[in-house]
């Protein structure tokens, strides 16, 4: 069961990484999406992430590529939505990277890793020498194995490799 859903990484909010875009009186609960999903006018949970994406990015491809809509219509009292929009459309160099638009879903259930929950795994090529890892990912989970080169570099160096692998997978699956 989903307990909480935020339009961004709540940990980054809690450590004030977004503070220049937020009113000083905002707290994390101001950005809780669907705090009462059964209330009239609320979007049911399964559609909520798609609603956030369509409202601010138009579609999954734009969401993945971080292409924010040119304009979004807000009501005069939609302060949180306006702040979120300013946060995600900012082009300034920042330390919060894509966490600013990573939809966070918190649950009170354990989600087992299985063929029902895992569709792909991205790992360094060096891990492919381990037959147990390959057997689990491909055999047990029936997941697509995506690899990237293993160099002795800073972890941030690998982000473009990972992002490209995931993007190609999502395109091949027709998800973006």
Cα distance spanning the termini: 26 Å
Overall number of structural domains:
2
- Spell out the helices and strands N to C: EHHHHEEHEH
| Fraction of helical residues | 25-40%
CA-based shape: globular
Radius of gyration: 18 Å
Question: How large a portion of the residues is in β-strands, by DSSP E?
Answer: 5-15%
Counting helices, strands and paired strands, the structural category is alpha+beta
Mean pLDDT: 89
Largest sheet: 2 strands, antiparallel
Work out the number of β strands: 4
Low-confidence stretches: none
Tally the helices: what do you get?
6
- Neighbour order of strands in the largest sheet: 1-2
Can you give a write-up of this model?
The chain has helices spanning 10-14, 48-56, 60-65, 79-89, 131-140, 159-172; strands at 2-6, 104-107, 120-124, 144-148. The protein has two domains: 2-107, no CATH class; 120-172, no CATH class. The protein is an alpha+beta fold and 176 residues long. Strands 1-2 form a two-stranded antiparallel ribbon. It has a two-stranded parallel sheet with strand order 3-4. 11% of the residues are buried. The chain is globular. The protein starts with a strand and ends with a helix. It contains six helices and four strands; from the N terminus they run βααααββαβα.
